[in-house]
Design a protein that fits this description.
Radius of gyration: 13 Å
Distance between the termini: 40 Å
Pfam family, one: Cupin_2
Organism: Rhizobium loti
InterPro entries: Cupin_2 (IPR013096), RmlC-like_jellyroll (IPR014710), RmlC_Cupin_sf (IPR011051)
CATH superfamily: Jelly Rolls
Order of helices and strands: EEEEEEEEE
Number of helices: 0
Largest sheet: 7 strands, antiparallel
GO molecular function, one term: isomerase activity
Protein name: Mannose-6-phosphate isomerase-like protein (Cupin superfamily)
Structural class: mainly beta
CATH topology: Jelly Rolls
């Protein structure tokens, strides 16, 4: 399978940009950039989706549940479904693999 970049869906947010590639409902992949904390306030969690973050460029602090990780290039962070988390950064580029594929309906913002 090949998914050309021009077939991705570009999503611009306040925090950065997401390029979402559709594989199937079982797994998803996206290329993302952040220029600030995400989410801007509080935390978010995915009720159904597990996420694997692969850091391509930059540094960040990932807060996952009650753990804090300082991450940089080539690091991997795994966030299991149901765990609240957020990212603090000024510039970060990463790939996210999700299983099952991420969908907005299962997303929850936590204050």
């Amino acid at each position: 399978m090949h998914i050309p970049a021009n077939k991705s869906r570009e999503i611009n947010t306040l925090e950065g940009t997401i390029w979402k590639y559709f594989l199937n409902s079982e797994v998803g992949i996206s290329y993302q950039t952040l220029t600030m904390r995400s989410p801007l306030t509080g935390q978010h969690l995915n009720k159904e989706t597990n996420e694997i973050y692969f850091i391509v460029k930059g540094t960040a602090k990932f807060i996952v549940g009650d753990k804090e990780y300082d991450v940089g290039e080539k690091d991997v962070v795994v966030v299991e479904a149901g765990i609240a988390h957020y990212i603090e950064t000024g510039a970060l580029t990463y790939l996210t693999v999700t299983r099952p594929d991420w969908k907005f309906e299962q997303y929850q913002h936590v204050d």
